[in-house]
Amino acid sequence: xxxxxxxxxxxxxxxxxxxxxxxxxxxxxxxxxxxxxxxxxxxxxxxxxxxxxxxxxxxxxxxxxxxxxxxxxxxxxxxxxxxxxxxxxxxxxxxxxxxxxxxxxxxxxxxxxxxxxxxxxxxxxxxxxxxxxxxxxxxxxxxx
Length: 144
Ligand code: DQA
Prior knowledge:
Helix content: 25-40%
Number of domains: 1
Number of strands: 5
Bound molecules: 1,3,4-trihydroxy-5-OXO-cyclohexanecarboxylic acid
CATH architecture: 3-Layer(aba) Sandwich
Radius of gyration: 14 Å
Mean pLDDT: 97
Largest sheet: 5 strands, parallel
Strand content: 15-25%
Strand order of the largest sheet: 2-1-3-4-5
CATH superfamily: Dehydroquinase, class II
Number of helices: 5
Low-confidence stretches: none
Order of helices and strands: EHHEHEHEEH
């Protein structure tokens, strides 16, 4: 099984940005953690991070026929992007929405998730472990 992990805007600044919310570990630490989790689960993984909405739409389109599932933390685009929602619907790959923090326990403008409608599961508030859980969920439910 081949899984694409997508991280949206400002996730590249992990460790620097609001450490009281997102922790002190860096994006590189997250990449290593995800690679290790995938290895343990016995799945192939590729990672992509972008601050740009269009680039995220492009990589979702690219995933069709090349990957068996998507793990996505769209970051702030979660709360604004119908384009990312539409891309996920278009490719129809099983996708898991992940958030490091729990947006439902934060500002009201974070309570809406446009992408959720196109996802088989949402995992929030579990930090790095949320990505591991998402990979395992795809492996257990959507292995090819
Ligand atoms: C986030 C939550 C979003 O509300 C926020 O804009 C982010 C990160 C999270 O992982 O907790 O950038 O997706």
